[in-house]
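Friendly challenge for the regulars: who can give me the structure tokens for this chain first? No prize, just bragging rights.
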Amino acid sequence: MASSHRVHFFHLIWSTKGRADFILPKMQEPLYTYMGGVIRKTGGTLLEIGGIINHVHLLVELSNLEHFISLIRNTKTSSTAWLKQQYPECKNFAWQDGYGSFSVSYSQLEATRAYIQNQEKHHHNQSFEEEYAKVLKLHQVAFDPRYAFD
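First reply, four minutes later:
Bragging rights claimed.
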């Protein structure tokens, strides 16, 4: 084959530090728009974003895997600074140190998109910790619940 062709889709998940309730409804849309811009500047495409008051889910397309770590680091770092600048009530805002990253096949993009769009519904009867543990188990990720959350 004379050339390379790549496309990768990721379902990314991270919470606020200690699952603190920082992301108020009035902040969600501006924050999500800002995060999409950071992802574009890092070489990715934000396909879907959603969450609730203490965490976000992102569906991202990234063709160049060399930019993967930068995309996550830049998105978290830049959005932290932006939130603190835009919203005085976020002066102590921080994202958790870690994150979840799960590959998504093309055939599952719409299902993943729908899942992300329905975060409010998912969290009527389950916490972020319960949801995240389910996702880890679904992807057969070995984890110790004592260290999965900061």
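Residues 32 and 49 are 7 Å apart (CA to CA). DSSP finds five helices and four strands in the chain. Your move, everyone else.
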